[in-house]
């Protein structure tokens, strides 16, 4: 996929004659530099259709000639409003997408034709199994199961427990039911429709790893900006277990009044979620930033910095070099960064 950003869709009308459109007509701009704690998503040019014979009106932001992407015909499979979200499932010839809330951000993608690699931050999740104990992995913010699908392909013996607060009919529209069937190695996905952050004594010391991908309105959940919440989540880990977190972009990248890309070792300090994690687990949080072509997402990892050389040998070849980009959060540079800004 191309650089990650919000969907540029001006309106999605009813996909059937008896359902009215609830989506706002606001167009969201592609995010090349993400100035807030937004969740970057797939950048896709759509020509939405109600059917093969009835095109739907679409308005897109003008882009520079060198940034133009080939338009891909798309159509709405279903659009509903739940207690928690505005939910839209969009189909293209090559993929199916789950869009949530008013941002129209892509929260899951299922590629057709059996290719589970996405070329974006979801791929990072498959690097977790080699650096945690044997045991189940929880996914908080399952969505349509993009990460779960790739993990079970590459690590087919792993037991996954996915948590999603919304009943999004993902079993029907995004193939989650396939992941509930045990693989040839016994791994499978168990789905919980509930609030993953509610305290539960049953989860104490249960998980070898926890993947956190929780957003609302394009932002990391407010509960995850609090140290006590992370300390509570850590109690759910086995000894030597780890938490991997999608932390989205950074709060501000401004220098002399102009947006700038901050790519040095201090960049993590501009991400509020990583800062909270480093307060909760001093000296035990690592971070990396996905390459520019993948949207400049921040990803964090608890449990200290793994042996990068050893880790590189244990992950799929596709990730063997990128895992070497992980760095330990160095708080010694904090005062320097604050003085500079």
UniProtKB/TrEMBL annotation:
Keyword Methyltransferase included in the entry's annotation: yes
Record key words, sorted: Methyltransferase, Transferase
InterPro entries: Lys/N-term_MeTrsfase_sf, SAM-dependent_MTases_sf
A GO BP annotation: methylation
Molecular function via GO: methyltransferase activity
Recorded family membership: Belongs to the methyltransferase superfamily.
Protein name: S-adenosyl-L-methionine-dependent methyltransferases superfamily protein
